[in-house]
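Milestone M4 deliverable, item 7.
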Amino acid sequence: MTQSDKGTVFSIGHGNLAEDDFVTSLMAHEIEVVVDVRSVPFSQYTPQFNRDAIETRLRAAGIDYAFAGRFLGGRPTDPTCYRSGVLPDHSADYLTLVDYDEVEQRPWYRRGLDRLVEIASARRTVMMCSEEDPARCHRHHLIAQTLLTRGIVVSHIRRNGSLEPARPVTKQLSLLP
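Output delivered:
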């Protein structure tokens, strides 16, 4: 790990990539640990990224896997983490329904984030979700934003292998009290 990468947290969304292309991208960026931040690490459309399958494939490639969806997932099980105060159904647009400011205050989220930072300070680490576009994923709108406020560099690995630096999201102010 180079000095400039020490503590950097990388981010990737598997999207509909072929499993080999995904692993090749990780290896090109010398990733050593994948921290899975999906609340539900299963997909009917891309079963090669189901938790057991991807963990097995990554380990075969010499990359460690850790599941952190319980703490860092984009679908909290606590209804008070939603703007409506109600758990939505599985087909909901979680990106607009989850109150990320509320999630950031939760001890379980802070513990998960601390562990992610600890891992990334020792080894090249990527947080993985399913959404390829970070602008449409909680890993950018929640996790990366918290990391940036802590002064930690976050780089999104895009589908073509390029790196895109995470930037702070401007929060829209409400006119309501």
